[in-house]
Design brief:
dioxygenase; 5-stranded mixed sheet; 3 helices; Intradiol_RC_Dioxygenase; mainly beta; Protocatechuate 3,4-Dioxygenase, subunit A; Protocatechuate 3,4-dioxygenase subunit alpha
């Protein structure tokens, strides 16, 4: 007597987090330098990535994408090598042990009818996909009122998208992944 063949049905399994491995291959030395610091219009954006308990995330990776000072999106090839004078509109920085990151760039001009902003992606442990947000600038408050994206954000949460001024050419923008003061993240 023969026994019937046993059929096996594949089971769906949940996604798993692997890593993070960001510090091994993705950061590069010039990554945080979107524009050279010697440019008269160069600005610095510094901040920290914090978890829900307010603790630093020492192994996150941040990418910024932005327009130049005239509101034009760079469309030329390249980006990793800036040769000391170029602006690519792209930067990448891993966090340090205190969750800190920094970028040297230029303040973007407005693209279309919106307020000037820098797009920010955050890759971190526990996230299966990066989270996206924006960095707006405090001196553009009048333009914030007409920005279509900011208009969709509840008024009491908009402040999580606006950097703090720290001097003439410096800003602070902390990313809170969850909890009190959680940064507004965008769904696509």
């Amino acid at each position: 007597m023969t026994t019937p063949a046993k059929t096996t049905q594949a089971e769906t399994t949940p996604s798993q987090t692997v890593g993070p491995f960001y510090g091994y291959a993705l950061p590069y030395e010039a990554g945080p330098r979107v524009a050279p610091a010697w440019r008269p219009d160069a600005i610095t954006i510094r901040g920290r990535v914090l978890d829900g308990a307010g603790e630093p995330v020492p192994d996150a990776l941040l990418e910024i994408w932005q327009a130049d000072e005239n509101g034009e999106i760079p469309r030329r090839p390249g980006g990793i090598v800036r040769e000391g004078h170029d602006f690519s509109g792209f930067g990448r920085c891993g966090t340090d042990a205190a969750g800190g990151f920094w970028f040297t760039t230029v303040k973007p001009g407005a693209v279309g009818a919106g307020a000037p902003y820098i797009a920010l992606l955050v890759f971190a442990r526990g996230l299966l996909k990066p989270v996206a947000t924006r960095i707006y600038f405090p001196e553009d408050e009048a333009a914030h009122a007409a920005d279509p994206l900011l208009a969709e954000v509840p008024a009491d949460r908009r402040g999580t998208l606006v950097a703090e001024r720290e001097g003439d050419r410096a800003y602070r923008f902390d990313v809170r992944l969850q909890g009190e003061g959680e940064t507004v993240f965008l769904a696509f």
